Structure formats: structure tokens, C-alpha cells
Amino acid sequence: MSEEAVKAAESNEPTEAATNEPTEAAIEETAAANTEDVSYHAVEKEGSVTAIWEMQGAKHIRTIDPRSSEGKQILALFETAG
Question: Domain residues of the chain, as ranges?
């Protein structure tokens, strides 16, 4: 055991490793993992888009209205990409 760990144990102070606070690297890693697999799926009915599903892997995150400004931006991106 290091001297710092011994002193912390004697004084009942948590060491850096024992705290529950996430490090900056862990936060950045989690944020990157959260945006990695995000995809959008258009739900069509009778030839028109009725909803846009935001998915992370196989998990449905939220539904976006295609008439909203965000929905229009997403649809415009996919129309220009194709």
C-alpha cells in the first residue's frame, strides 16, 4: 500500500481511486460511446415519411416529427447524401 493510501485509510479520507466521481477521460469515453451507434430510420406510410426514429444500436432512443425543424434537417441531409 502506498503512503498516501495508508494515511487516507488512517484518517478515513477517500483516496482518488475510492471516490465515485468519474474522471474526464471516462466522461469523454462514455460520450463517444453514446454517439457512436446513433442512426436514423424513416418510417413511411403510403409513400410519405410519418416519423423518424433515432436509434442507438437496436435501442429506440426517440421519435422525431418529420415536420419539425430537426426532422426537416435530418431528411435534407439524407436527400442530399443519396
Answer: 1-36, 37-82
